[in-house]
Fold:
Amino acid sequence: LERSRGEFAYRSASPLRPLLEIYRGFVAGRSYRGRVLPRFFLPDGWLITPLRTLSWLAPCPELSVLAVDWARAEPRAGGPSPGLGAAADLAVAGNVRGARRIALAQTLTAGQADDGSWGVTESTALVGERNAVACSAVGDFAAAGTRRIAVLYGALHMRGIGELLEANLGLEYAGRDALRVFSQPLAPPTVRAAAAKAALPALYVVVGTADWMALVGAVEASVASGSYDAWLFAGLYIARRVLLYYALARCIEWGSSLFPEA
Structure:
C-alpha cells in the first residue's frame, strides 16, 4: 500500500534503509521540512544543509547539529528534558544507580517520539490510515449503542488515534489507569549539584575541543608522512561525535511525549 501511494517504506526491510538513515543523520537532519530562516529568499536546503554537513568536522559538532535540528523541528521542539537535570543531580550525589534508572526512563519516554523517520512524520498508510480505520470502527460501535470499547494498538498509534477520537467523535480524555514499573526518588537540590551542572557544559566543550585538536594533529602528521591514516582518524572522530549526537538527542523534548505524565 505504501508503494502504491508513492510512499517509500523507510521503516521496511529495504536494503536502502541504512543509506537513508545515514543521509538523514549527516545531511538532511532530524526534520528537514522546518526552516531556520523562514524569510530568507533561498530555501534552507541551499544554505543550512551544507553548513550542517560540514560542521561534522568542527569541534563538538553534535551541539551545532542539534541546534540546527531543534530550530527546524516542526512542530516546535521544547527544551532539555527534565530527566536530564534529575539524572545529573543523582550522579553528583553519588547515586549512579538512580541516575541510570532516570536515564532508562528517559529512553523509554523518548524512544518513540515519532515513527522513526527523524521527525518527518506523515499520515502514511502504515500509521495514519490504520488510525483512521480504527476510529471509524469505534464510531460504528458507538453509533450502535456500545458504551465500552477497547482499541488494542501499539504505542506508535496512541497519539494519532486520540486526536482522531477527539476531532471526529467528540470524545474527551478522562484519564487512565497506569501500571508503575519502577520509581526513583530525586536527589535534594544542593549547591554542589548546581555548581556541577553549571560547569558541565563548559567541561564538555573543553573535552570536545581537545578531541578535535587531537584529530587535527593526527591528520597533519598523517599527511606529512604520506600515509592514508587521516581518513581513519577523521572517520573515528565523526563516529564518536555521532554517538554523542544520538545520546544528546534523546535528552531533548522534540514533541509531546507518549507518556505526558512521565
